[in-house]
Amino acid sequence: MDSAHQHMHNCGRELMLAIVENHWQDAHFDAFQEGLLSFTSALTDYKIYLLTIRSNMDVLTGLPGRRFLMNPLIISYATLSL
């Protein structure tokens, strides 16, 4: 997500500089739009990830639920920690 964020800002800077110097092209707008869409997509994926984690927690106790604990990444990390 960080790289998509940086890319969006870089494209925005290039677009603004091209506009100020009066040599903008459609490619500048297209690049900025692509960067903005890429960042928005990464942000949406992260929000879905956070909601998934939240939905796998017990509301009353705040402890992780069975689905969270059965996550292969969690299991492999726990195995390595032993």
From TrEMBL:
Q: Which UniProt keywords apply?
A: Nucleotidyltransferase, Transferase
Domain of life of the source: Bacteria
- What's the Enzyme Commission number for this chain? 2.7.7.65
UniProt-recorded Gene Ontology molecular function terms: diguanylate cyclase activity
Q: What class of enzyme is it?
A: transferase
Kindly give the Gene3D superfamilies that the UniProt entry links to this protein.
Aspartate receptor, ligand-binding domain
* UniProt source species: Escherichia coli
Protein's name according to its UniProt entry? Putative signal transduction protein
